[in-house]
Amino acid sequence: MFGYDNFAKELSVIANIIIELPKQEEIKRKDNSLNKRVELHLHTQMSQMDAVTSAKDLIKRAASWGMKSIAITDHGVVQAFPEAKHAVDDLGLDIKVLYGVEAYFVPDDEIPEGEAGWKKIKPYHAIILTKNQKGLRNLYELISISHIQYFHKRPRILQSVFEKYREGLILGSACEQGELYKAILQGKSEEKIEKIVQYYDYLEIQPLGNDEFMIRDGIVPDREALKNINRKIVELGEKFGKLVVATCDVHFMDPQDEIYRRILMAGQGFSDCDNQAPLYFRTTEEMLAEFDYLGSEKAYEVVVTNTNKIADLCENVCPISKEKCPPVIPGAEEEIKEICEKKAKELYGDPLPEIVQSRLKRELDSIIKNGFSTLYIIAQRLVLKSNEDGYLVGSRGSVRFIICSKYAWNNRSKLTSTTL
Description:
The chain is an alpha/beta fold. It folds into two domains: 37-313, TIM Barrel; 332-410, no CATH class. The chain is built from 15 helices and ten strands. Helix 12 (332-348) runs antiparallel to helix 13 and helix 13 (354-369) runs antiparallel to helix 15 (400-410). The chain is globular.
């Protein structure tokens, strides 16, 4: 039942009786194919309010199925990269993570004139994968720029900006929200469609169930129309020598997990939340069955051969620097020493008592030797400026050593070197 929680000061669910139900036996799917596919379009919980599965669980599942690689491509962000890296390392998994993003892409030739013309058009989706460490750095640059300079409802990547940082990156045409799929759907000229194809590094097709909403909405007449769009993309790939890959556009792990995404979408007011697309992580056999209308040979090519070729283009990269890479303010080390020694002498006199001097040295050494001087100076300056302007502001951690030292001095007779 719902009730008002006087402690939390908000409406809460209040449980009077809790009954534990036996866990339903899960149907554990296995990938029994000799040669495995690679998923190149996959969302984790970091695709905010859209996907429901952690990077760790998805990677564990792919590894358990014997897949050699798996891509992480969240919407506009890269926050899942550290979890993905730790999942592989901590669990000792023999699998390569392909680090990427599903970008909100804005082609230059569609931007209206004016300084903020990019705000006026709806961006396309595009998949960006990193080939090497240089590409990873460039991807991080693009993510930062998209959030700081070109954010409008979503973090947008302008084509001209992408070109500046394209080294080490692979560009895929993405889903039905991609530039190529929309051009075909809207009946654009062959010249326009072929120009789009030539810009992308590889082309993407997805299971029919992913796009069945277009049948419900009257955008296309039937499943055969959806098949024909995928066939068209395959033909374009053959014509222009572009790899065509079949992806799931994963948003949850297993078919029954659609209910969790249904809840997410209902909370956002989507009227069609109960008509969930089957955006689950498929085995190789399941994907081959999805594309059997292309013929067995072509189905195997797009599901297995080409996805592995794209994965092979990508090196094993590390998304987390082994170095701390803290910011640098020249003279920060000397400044923090001067500030702390001056304050300590105000509190305890000059010369400082041995117990205070020893503790102060220990704390300063920890800060300076680990490269944190600038971070502490930034905190100190922010707090000082705020206090001077009349705001009561504190800084936990950066002044803790002074508090500890004062406590130690006042209670020196009760403390041992161990407690210090």
